[in-house]
Amino acid sequence: MAKGVKPRVKVPKSAAAGETITIKTLISHKMESGQRKDSDGNPIPRSIINRFTADFNGQNVIDVTLEPAISTNPYFQFDSIVPESGEFTFTWYDDDGSVYTETKSISVS
Amino acid sequence: MRKVIMTTACLALFTAPAWAGPDEDNLVINDETEMITEVAAPAHLENVDTIYSGWRFRTDETQALQLDDFDNPAMIFVDQAMDLFNTVDGSEGKSCASCHESVEEFKGLSASMPKVVDGKLVVMEDILNTHRADVMGAEPWKWSGPEMQSMVALIGLQSRGMPVNVKIDGDAAPFWEQGKEMYYTRYGQLELSCANCHEDSYGKMIRADHLSQGQINGFPTYRLKQARLISRHNRFRGCIRDTRAETFAEGSDEFRALELYVASRGNGLSVETPAVRQ
Description:
Strand order of the largest sheet of chain A: 2-8-7-4-5
Largest sheet of chain A: 5 strands, mixed
Strand content of chain B: 5-15%
Helix content of chain B: 25-40%
Oligomer: heterodimer
CATH architecture of chain B: Orthogonal Bundle
Distance between the termini of chain A: 42 Å
CATH architecture of chain A: Sandwich
Helix content of chain A: under 10%
Strand order of the largest sheet of chain B: 10-9-11
Number of helices of chain B: 10
CATH topology of chain B: Cytochrome Bc1 Complex, Chain D, domain 2
CATH topology of chain A: Immunoglobulin-like
Number of domains of chain A: 1
Structural class of chain B: alpha+beta
CATH class of chain A: Mainly Beta
Structural class of chain A: mainly beta
CATH superfamily of chain A: Immunoglobulins
Radius of gyration of chain B: 20 Å
């Protein structure tokens, strides 16, 4: 299992109905590409986050496939329309099978 | 004839921005912490009237990374240091948290570092390694290693927004004089002193790089080109190396003295740790 993986998310606490909000996400991950070799010349196995999704009240907002060329600590910033109060669920899928999730609620007035 | 005039005009156009000093931007972190990035120079500075944070010399894109802690890549390392703070290490079975209730008790410490303790000039790295050895029975951290600089950044963060205020008189005076001597000494094949670039020429371009005053109020700093936290001594070493000189070692007494002197040149600026630079 990759070490030191920690998801971080920034979502506004409140918004107006139908407003477009900006969401920032970042997960600390070494994103080992599988192309590198260690000091003895052996290939270092690939270990990356391969998929990232964000859902709002069960509805998918964004679904991203990540490839090995994406660098350490992948950062995503995107916009979403929030029609009602609810909860964002963010999910990162690791090559080693680990799944990291983070939730943030937002109140819409 | 017209061609000649045109050429001259073009030349003037390209050579015009010889002086492009600090910009006019204000640094407010997380929309709440207002930072002092420009202030009257401390009394001991003879050749500079106003001191500026290095932040003012960076591009808008780089500046933006420091405005919000979420965007600041250094915060990942600060988070890691928070974990280290609670991690037991060494033969005594202790972590930092065993003795120190919270990192917040170090508020203000970094703003007054380096300082003289029992006749020796100590910097933050010294304090950390001394505590690790004497209290925790742990191996010392490497000076510019990730653990060391993350922890220095975490402790520095507690003082963020407070003005730098290092003591230069009393028992600190001989070390300060030594640092000042070094600052004005020309090193290397290029025969450059710190002052040649950071005092005489700040604001000018040195090739593609915009020269700042070389303030260290934001260290350890996340440098985009190295993608990690950079210690003060690492930056000193880099600068002296660029003059094509044999440099001093990180953690040498020479660099401790230089750190005290350079820190004192920023007396009055806000501590920005951890800053983001090019």
